[in-house]
Amino acid sequence: MIPILQSPRAGGELYTYTPRQAAPIQAPKAPLASRIAYSAAHVVCDPFADTDPLSNAQIDWDATLAYRRHLWSLGLAVAEAMDTAQRGMGLDWNRAKELIARSTAEARSVGGRIASGAGTDHLAPGAHVTLEAVEAAYEEQVSFVEEQGDQVILMASRALAACAKSPEDYERVYGKILRQVSKPVILHWLGDMFDPALAGYWGESDLDRAMDVCLRVIRANADKVDGIKISLLDAEKEIRMRRLLPEGVKMYTGDDFNYPELIRGDEQGYSHALLGIFDAIAPVAAAAISQLDAGNTEQYNALMEPTVALSRHIFQRPTFAYKTGIVFMAYLNGHQSHFRMIGGAEGARSVVHLSELFVLADKAGLLSDAELAVRRMKQVLALAGV
After folding, report:
1. CB < 8 Å & 24+ apart, contacts of 308-312
2. DSSP 292-338
3. pLDDT tens column, 287-299
């Protein structure tokens, strides 16, 4: 029998919640076919490392790689060393290199699909930074990812955002890097709600004008661009851009608010996926896309729709703190033995937020073992004085 839970509301009032006994989501029996679905994957920190958790947190490699095997077993691809892995927010380039190398080797061993982030995060933004320095930083990281045999996800650059003076500077830097890559890359446009240091990216504060710059870059280098992932939390802008992409260039939605409709698509096309929320909702996401493969749109909608409230909760402002909810879901579902994060980011959300996350996850059918999840939720609440 699943025990009841005494959960807090804002202000400290407690209410009783009894999780439902949902049937476990069945993994797809065949590879996903109609959509490419990348889950940006989190990292599991080593809770017993005797180092500063803010500046020198260590990674539990066994648990981190086990989670990637879990994602691959569901038919999802892995987007490695992205912002979901706290890239630039606890995970520096040196540790990201090790993560990319280990995950790529693991992908080869199980036949999993992987793409990895290459950016400029080892180059600190500052007055001394030049466009040439940004280009060299990109070249270093792109070369490393390609040496592993990975597809490159060309991440947005804080250093470029800080030193670029015009849209032409972006066109110059991206053009130079794209001409050098050995195979098509996925571009990554991350909105400032995910990273405030990326405000005004592409040299424009207006998103429509920024999109025009980005499209110029893509059209000038279409043979080197597999697709673009945009994370602007604006479905209309994504659809507009999707319809303007050159033939053969894919749209990968990064919209953690509107992903069901964007992946489902319309009479003029659809988006593939490269999403942080797929880390948290992996079983449902894989099952839903499998239904889409079979032409069963109603069942796709029925599976996906209950996850939206959970995702909007996890990604509420400040949006960049969403990683806390992603890791908390992995903890509730037994994929890691603790709720600790690199950089101490487990403290980035309130206990009221985490309590509501638990309820929404249960309603979406995403607690794989309700008894275990209740027991772990009670431990977190007890630490908060509940």
Report:
1. 308/257, 308/259, 308/260, 309/360, 309/363, 309/364, 310/280, 310/281, 310/357, 310/360, 310/361, 310/363, 310/364, 310/366, 311/256, 311/257, 311/259, 311/277, 311/280, 311/281, 312/256, 312/257
2. HHTT-HHHHHHHHHHHHHHHHHHTPSSGGGHHHHHHHHHHHTTSSS-
3. 999 999 999 999 9
Give the pLDDT band (50/70/90) at residue 372.
very high
pTM above 0.85, yes or no: yes
Query: Which residues have C-beta within 8 Å of that of residue 50, sequence separation ≥ 6?
Result: none
> What are the tokens at 104?
């790529």
Q: How far apart are CA 374 and CA 223, in angstroms?
A: 50
Angle at 275 between CA 64 and CA 44, to 5 degrees: 15
User: In the predicted model, what is the mean pLDDT of residues 137-156?
Assistant: 98
